[in-house]
User: Which sequence fits this backbone?
């Protein structure tokens, strides 16, 4: 008995040694797929839905094999009912969340004083240096390059390319993105640029002896060439004077959450005076 | 120090150097339009081709994960680069060793096409955009760019360094 177990164990280790590169590859692939599962974005949601559909279909086709002599018809009927209800439940939940989101956006569009064009994000390009959105509105809807893109929380980016049906928006989280901005409380001016982190940008150009505090609101300024003033950029989350050079190292958490962008608004107006009024930024977060 | 451990240390340092260059240098200075060379892919292909599928897939996994951290889409680069690292070894043909400086860029080109094809396939899932235009507009120029950079890197690195990283049973990978 002992020798038999030992033979099995040594045989098992021999198999491991022979196929270790394939086994390791398989393990790494499984880990990568598990990592993919941690994302919440349209691509992975699409994959989840597809896999769920295929597994449900397979379970429906072959599930009957294991039931043996049980009442097959009753089980099938109940399973069908169960699947229908589960599907309905998912649809209702989706519709409920969609409803809340659309109401929220509708209220924002109603209260926002500038003319806007709602657009859905149909693709997001992510790379180390470029972060862009493809929107489902294009030249036929009046979209032009350099128009500002916002959502109900604040500035998102600007349109950089257009085609008749689609347009491309460069996000604030892009290496080549810059916007002139100012601190709302003290009117200190600076430049907003991306540092490489999610939902965080830098605010450059404030001298070390000037007053910037955590929680200060950052808005776009009148000095920007393409951006309308008083669009909310974000809130200061860290101020550091212990850096080389003349200026403070200021980090700003963006008002817009770039991980969950699905709908945005393209601002069709380009006249700066329209948004230069006092308290214009209160149109963002208007209900809170 | 055993040669194997020394080699692992050298590869770790080289990988980190490539990553730093990828983040700070290539995206800023080597970008041509939308295309930038993928140094991590070249590194993974190099390790996979010279050392075999196990180090190749490990290097690909690590390199891909580091890139995923940057784009906040965990698993995508990891998956693509692990496959690239594993598959690189299948390109090895002893008859081409003499012309390896031309063969390596060709391997990088092929793996780059495969990598980007998978990458853009996942990116277009659930969207209205089509995979083929993205492939021709982004993946193909990227692969050509990677080919050129791989050739230049191969020529720029001292021959002794390249020979140091070579599959040998003594390494016991």
Assistant:
């Amino acid at each position: 008995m002992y020798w038999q177990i030992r033979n099995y164990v040594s045989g098992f280790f021999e198999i491991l040694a022979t196929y270790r590169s394939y086994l390791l590859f398989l393990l790494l692939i499984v880990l990568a797929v598990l990592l993919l599962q941690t994302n919440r974005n349209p691509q992975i949601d699409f994959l989840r839905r597809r896999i769920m559909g295929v597994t449900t279909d397979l379970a429906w086709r072959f599930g009957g094999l294991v039931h043996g002599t049980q009442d097959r018809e009753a089980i099938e009927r109940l399973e069908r009912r169960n699947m229908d209800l589960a599907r309905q439940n998912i649809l209702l939940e989706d519709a409920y969340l969609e409803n809340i989101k659309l109401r929220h956006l509708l209220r924002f569009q109603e209260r926002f004083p500038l003319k806007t064009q709602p657009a859905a994000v149909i693709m997001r390009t992510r790379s180390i240096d470029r972060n862009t959105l493809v929107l489902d509105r294009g030249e036929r809807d009046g979209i032009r390059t350099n128009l500002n893109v916002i959502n109900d929380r604040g500035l998102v980016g600007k349109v950089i390319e257009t085609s008749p049906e689609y347009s491309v928006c460069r996000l604030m989280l892009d290496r080549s993105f810059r916007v002139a901005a100012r601190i709302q409380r003290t009117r200190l001016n600076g430049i907003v640029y991306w540092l490489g982190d999610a939902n965080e940008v830098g605010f450059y150009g404030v001298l070390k002896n000037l007053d910037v505090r955590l929680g200060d609101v950052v808005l776009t300024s009148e000095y920007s060439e393409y951006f309308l003033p008083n669009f909310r950029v974000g809130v200061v989350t860290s101020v550091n004077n212990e850096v080389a050079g003349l200026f403070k190292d200021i980090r700003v958490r963006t008002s817009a959450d770039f991980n969950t962008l699905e709908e945005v608004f393209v601002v069709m107006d380009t006249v700066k005076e329209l948004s230069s009024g006092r308290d214009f930024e209160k149109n963002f977060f208007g209900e809170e | 120090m055993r040669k194997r451990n020394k080699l692992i240390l050298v590869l770790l340092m080289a990988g980190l150097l490539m990553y730093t260059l990828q983040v700070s240098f290539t995206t800023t200075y080597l970008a041509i339009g939308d295309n930038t060379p993928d140094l991590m892919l070249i590194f993974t292909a190099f390790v996979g081709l010279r050392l075999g599928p196990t180090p190749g897939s490990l290097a690909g996994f690590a390199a891909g994960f580091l890139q995923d951290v940057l784009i906040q889409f965990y698993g995508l680069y990891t998956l693509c680069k692990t496959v690239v690292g594993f598959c690189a070894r299948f390109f090895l043909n002893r008859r081409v060793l003499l012309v390896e400086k031309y063969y390596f860029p060709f391997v990088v080109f092929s793996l780059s096409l495969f990598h980007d094809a998978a990458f853009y396939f996942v990116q277009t899932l659930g969207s209205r955009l089509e995979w083929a235009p993205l492939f021709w507009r982004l993946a193909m120029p990227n692969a050509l760019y990677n080919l050129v950079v791989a050739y230049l890197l191969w020529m720029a690195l001292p021959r002794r360094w390249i020979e140091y990283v070579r599959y040998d049973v003594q390494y016991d990978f």
